[in-house]
Amino acid sequence: MSEGQSSARAPTGGRAPVGRPLLSLTLASMMDEVHAHSGAVYLLSPDQPVLEMAVMAGLPRAFAAPWERVGLSAPIPVSDAVRERRLVWVGGEEEMARHYPRIAMVLPYPFSLAALPVSTAAKAYGAVFVTWPGTHPQELSDWERDHLTAACDRLAVRLERAAEQSLPLAPEPDLLAAPLVGGMSGTLGTVEAARMVSRLPYGLCSLDLHGRVGFANAAATELLGVPANRLLGAQMWASVPWLNDPVYEDRYRAALFSQHVTSFVALRPPDEWLSFRLYPSTTGLSVRISRARAAEMNRAAPRSGQGRPRLVTITQVLGLAGALTEAVGVQDVVQLVADEIVPAVGSQGLVMLGSRAGRLRILGHQGYADARVVERFDGMPLSEPTPGSQVLRSGVPAFFESREEVERLYPALLVNPSEFAAWAYLPLIASGRPVGTCVLSYAAPHHFATEERAVLTNLAGLIAQALERALLYDAKHRLAHGLQEALLPHTLPSLAGIEAAARYLPATQGMEIGGDFYDLVPTQGMAAAVIGDVQGHNVTAAGLMGQVRTAVRAYTAVGQAPEEVMRSTNRLLLDLGADLFASCLYLRLDPAHGRAVMSRAGHPPPLLRRPDGRVRVLDLAGGPLLGIDGSAAYPSTEVDLSPGSLLVLYTDGLVESPGTDFEDAVADLCRRITDLGDLPLDDLADALVQHGADAENRLDDIALLLLRALPRD
């Protein structure tokens, strides 16, 4: 929507619209009654929960551009006023930064605001807001409240009657100051007034509410180095190249919003500094331009070593947002905040707080010489009077500019104080609920300006989204590992005549849980071993793996032969209706007689290292993967297992990798077993999985089961 235009809905149907500019007149009267200097009327969209700005007064619509069309759920005063059917009062810039940080970040100026619903008992029609300069008292007076409420109630009744009569509202223009006075410099006012102004030794300019130059005396054009015909009708920062900086435009906006005299100095190339002083009113600005004095230069230039805290730029925000999307776990978020935000905002320490079961949890910290200063709060009840727990409970940020300030409010912190002297406690709110608190610590006392508070609070929103995802990821990760550990044997049983060792490594992709499994089951006089791989790397695969492992144990316990165990397990998978398949290798060990009977279902072949060190691949007969064909047969094969022999059972994750031929990988595994096969079994197991353990992107699970036949007594 362009400046000066209205977004009110156009007339529909054949009915004539409401005759007078109802909204504009109501807003103007309301502002005049309470001496407000700007305001706007919003109308509620008839077909969706959206407020649309219908008319604005006192300031250019561009100032409120981000909020021309807002949802009822948006965290801004007019939405709150309609949603909660109450007057919303914001008494100043600090209160705005605390309750509405997004607005404070865009408009970090001293002003007060009241927002009211335009509604009857039966229906809401929209909302109104009005603003006052920063000189307004921090509290809204009773007579102001009554005038505003009564005006909104009258407007609601008028809108209700118009709706009952099907009278649409015609578009209405925004209420701004009078148009520019055209012509050359010197045509403002009487001729004598123009002559007087032209004789002044300093420059004078008049700007309207849009920042456009309506008058400039000769001294102003000389100091700016721009002729009057290029200045008139244009915005000063657009027509003067060396003023084309958002910092200078911001000073104009600050003067209009606060109605306070505002000043700045600017460098006219190559080396001349000029002083600008802006005198605002409700109709525009008068600007006095002169050569800067030494005192102004000293105030304008930062002293050595005392620069302002460096606020985060939009580039840094975008970079941080991109980095936070890549953070996986909570510690990733903590490290990113420590690396990106802490140095950017000029703080030196960081603490990330969370909660669990009504107690404070330290999620991570950086920059503290003595970790005990932070960690003593871990496990503290949230009801304890500490700033971290208070901000976490309330969702309201807290800023402490000195040690004395925080210790006065929280005497308990006097015990074992930290080395820091100022703190920003930022609530981390995601999905409408607090997920933690970010504490930024400063080595020296630190003044938190309104703009800085707004920036920090908005950064906290980015951190909160990342932390919520990280907490969820870590919870799933713990659940996955707990499930995996529950489904795999905690220890291997001791067997007569057999030494065993096993290893399991989850894939590093997804939830780091999978369907690979192994087991060793003692039976009367013998033992059964199994290794398998259920398709997939998720909870479903792990759950099905647990059922397969349990079934194999059950069929072993009733004395089924290896081929029968495989057939029974195959039928079970089909009966369960699972869409996943499984490979499996099952063997019955008879160490007393030096043999093993094996049955295979689509699983990689086992390796046998003989006592003389030679290794061969056991090419066993077998059947298809389990869960495919209910009539499949799984023939068994007997293998010699003399004392000193070593059986190596594994899943394909141990040998398969992108770009590697399977047979070449198995041959390489055979060579390693040949070279390392005499190692103690646990050392050999570690050596065989070492390559997979070192891989950062392990695409598949790895399961390994080693069985060595011991010498007979």
SSE map:
Elements: H1 22-34, E1 38-44, E2 50-57, E3 69-71, H2 77-84, E4 88-90, H3 93-99, H4 101-106, E5 111-119, E6 124-133, H5 142-164, H6 191-199, E7 203-207, E8 213-216, H7 218-224, H8 228-231, H9 236-239, H10 246-258, E9 262-268, E10 272-281, E11 284-291, H11 294-300, H12 314-326, H13 330-345, E12 349-356, E13 359-366, H14 372-375, H15 387-394, E14 398-400, H16 403-409, E15 422-430, E16 433-442, H17 450-487, E17 498-505, E18 515-523, E19 526-534, H18 539-557, H19 562-576, E20 582-590, E21 595-601, E22 607-609, E23 615-617, E24 622-623, E25 636-640, E26 646-650, H20 662-676, H21 681-694, E27 702-709
Parallel strand pairs: 21-24
Antiparallel strand pairs: 1-2, 1-6, 2-3, 4-5, 5-6, 7-8, 7-11, 9-10, 10-11, 12-13, 12-16, 14-15, 15-16, 17-27, 18-19, 19-20, 20-21, 21-25, 22-23, 22-26, 26-27
Helix pairs in contact: 1-5, 3-17, 12-13, 12-17, 13-17, 17-18, 18-19
Explain this structure.
- With 713 residues, the protein is an alpha+beta fold.
- It contains 21 helices and 27 strands.
- Strands 3-2-1-6-5-4 form a six-stranded antiparallel beta sheet. Strands 18, 19, 20, 21, 24 and 25 form a six-stranded mixed beta sheet that branches. A five-stranded antiparallel beta sheet has the order 8-7-11-10-9, sandwiched between helices.
- A hairpin with a 5-residue loop joins strand 1 and strand 2 (50-57).
- Helix 3 (93-99) packs parallel to helix 17.
- The longest helix has 38 residues, at 450-487.
List keywords for this structure.
6-stranded mixed β-sheet; 713 residues; alpha+beta; 25% strand; 6-stranded antiparallel β-sheet
